[in-house]
Design brief:
This is ROK family protein. Belongs to the ROK (NagC/XylR) family. This protein is α/β, with parallel strands linked by helices. It folds into 3 domains: 2-76, Winged helix-like DNA-binding domain superfamily/Winged helix DNA-binding domain (Arc Repressor Mutant, subunit A), CATH 1.10.10; 80-190 and 359-372, ATPase, nucleotide binding domain (Nucleotidyltransferase, domain 5, 2-Layer Sandwich), CATH 3.30.420; 199-352, 2-Layer Sandwich (Nucleotidyltransferase, domain 5). The protein has 12 helices and 15 strands. The strands form 4 sheets. The chain has a 5-stranded mixed β-sheet, with helices on both faces. A 5-stranded mixed β-sheet has the order 13-12-11-14-15, with helices on one face. Strand 4 and strand 5 (92-99) form a beta hairpin. It is globular. 40% of the residues are buried. The model has no long low-confidence stretch (mean pLDDT 92).
Length: 380
C-alpha cells in the first residue's frame, strides 16, 4: 500500500511537471483545473518541485474576472540537470552535453574514423571527457545512438560496422553511475523531431546514411516492435533478386537508395576516391548533368520507399534526415513530385531541421524524458 501511494504521488508529480513544461507559464489554480488534482495536492507537489529546483515562481499573472489575488505563475527550470547524448556513426562520432531542454553546453565531433568493437568504448569515453571537462554541472543520464537494431539496450545487428553483440551497456555502467540508454539512431531522429518543436503527433523519422531506417513516433511514443526491429525499412525489398544485403535478403531498399550507395555512384562519375555532401551540393548547383540525374534517380527510389511507408503507417509527417537532402532542399520537392498515390499525396515531407545533430538531440530527448519520468515530452 505504501508503495502504491508513492507511485501515485510520482505519477501526479510527473503529470504536473509536464503541464508546467507544456504551458510554460501557469498558475497552481490552472494546474488543478487541467489535471483534475485538488488544490491541496497541487500545492504540496509544486512546493517539492520548487524546493528541488525543478520549477521557479516567475511572477504574477492576471487576476480572475471577479478580482482577488493575482496568481503566482510557475515555470520549468531546464537547467536543474544536464544530459549527454552521443551519435556513434559508421565513420564518425558526435556528442552533446546539454540542459534538459536541449540547450547546448558543449559539442564533440570526430570524423573520418573507423568505428569498431575495439575502439568504440574509448571513443565514447573520450567524447564524455571532452564534453564535461570545463564544467562541474550534474549529469543525470547518457543516451547513445547506434546505427543498427537495438532492443532493451542490447545491440543485435549493425550491418555496416562491427558492434553486433557488443555488451556496451555493461561496460559503460562500470564507468558511469547515471542511467545509460542505447537506442537505434532512426528512433532517435524521430524522437528528437517530436520533442524539439515539430508540430506533429504522428511522424516517421527517415534516417539515410550507410543504411536506411525509420523511427516511428505515434502520439509522442516510440513504436519499436516486439524485438526492436520496427522501422527497418531499408531491408524491405525494392528489386526482387537484386543486390545482396548484409541482412541476408536480395534487393533491399538501402542497397539502392542509401547515402553510401549514392556517394559511390557519384565518386565514379567524378573519378574521385572521396566525396562529401558539400562537394555533391556544389556539383548539383553547377548543373553537372550526370550528378543531377543520379540525384534525381535517388529521389525517385526514395519516393517508392516513402510511398510504402505511407501506405502502412499513414503518418502525419515524414522527416528526411540525410546529409544530402538536408542541404539540397530541391530534392525534397523531387521526392514529393513522385508521390501522387491516394496514400502518400497528403503526407507532409520535410528535411530535418536539426541536420547532423538530429540523432544527438533525439538522445537528449530520450535521456530527459527518462530523468523527468515524462512520456510525450515536448519543448517548444
Amino acid at each position: 500500500m505504501v508503495s502504491d501511494k508513492f507511485n501515485i504521488r510520482k505519477q501526479n508529480e510527473s503529470m504536473l511537471l509536464k503541464k508546467i513544461i507544456d504551458e510554460q507559464n501557469i498558475s497552481r489554480a490552472d494546474l488543478s483545473k487541467l489535471t483534475g488534482l485538488n488544490k491541496a495536492s497541487v500545492s504540496t507537489i509544486t512546493k517539492d518541485l520548487i524546493e528541488n529546483n525543478f520549477v521557479f515562481e516567475i511572477g504574477t499573472g492576471n487576476s480572475s474576472s471577479v478580482g482577488g489575488r493575482k496568481p503566482v505563475l510557475l515555470e520549468f527550470n531546464p537547467k536543474v540537470a544536464t544530459v549527454i547524448a552521443i551519435d556513434v556513426g559508421i565513420n564518425y562520432i558526435y556528442g552533446i552535453h546539454s540542459y534538459l531542454n536541449g540547450e547546448e553546453i558543449s559539442w564533440f565531433e570526430e570524423t573520418d574514423i573507423t568505428i569498431s568493437k575495439e575502439n568504440v568504448l574509448n571513443l565514447i569515453n573520450k567524447a564524455i571527457e571532452v564534453l564535461t571537462k570545463k564544467t562541474d554541472l550534474e549529469v543525470v543520464s547518457l543516451a547513445i545512438g547506434v546505427h543498427g537494431v537495438v532492443n532493451n539496450n542490447d545491440i543485435y545487428f549493425t550491418p555496416y560496422y562491427d558492434l553486433t553483440d557488443l555488451n556496451l551497456i555493461e561496460e559503460l555502467t562500470k564507468l558511469y553511475d547515471y542511467p545509460i540508454f542505447i537506442e537505434n539512431e532512426a528512433n532517435l531522429v524521430a524522437l528528437g523531431a517530436y520533442c524539439f518543436g515539430l508540430e506533429a503527433h504522428s511522424l516517421v523519422g527517415l534516417s539515410i546514411h550507410s543504411g536506411i531506417g525509420a523511427g516511428i513516433v505515434n502520439d509522442g511514443l516510440l513504436q519499436k516492435g516486439q524485438y526492436g526491429e520496427a522501422g527497418e525499412v531499408g531491408h524491405t525489398i525494392l528489386f526482387p533478386g537484386g543486390e545482396k544485403c548484409p541482412c541476408g535478403n536480395l534487393g533491399c531498399f538501402e542497397q539502392y537508395a542509401s547515402t553510401e550507395i549514392l556517394f559511390n555512384k557519384i565518386k565514379g562519375i567524378l573519378n574521385l576516391n572521396y566525396i562529401n555532401s558539400l562537394l555533391v551540393k556544389k556539383e548539383y548547383y553547377n548543373n553537372n548533368k550526370e550528378v543531377v540525374k543520379t540525384l534525381e534517380e535517388n529521389a525517385y527510389l526514395l519516393s517508392i520507399g516513402i510511398n510504402n511507408i505511407s501506405s502502412f503507417l499513414n503518418p502525419q509527417t515524414i522527416i528526411i534526415n540525410s546529409p544530402i537532402y538536408n542541404i539540397i532542399p530541391e530534392l525534397i520537392d523531387q521526392v514529393k513530385s513522385n508521390l501522387s498515390g491516394q496514400f502518400s499525396n497528403k503526407i507532409n515531407i520535410k528535411p530535418s531541421a536539426l541536420g547532423k545533430k538530429s540523432i544527438v538531440y533525439g538522445g537528449v530527448a530520450l535521456a530527459s524524458q527518462n530523468f523527468l519520468n515524462i512520456n510525450k515530452l515536448k519543448f517548444i
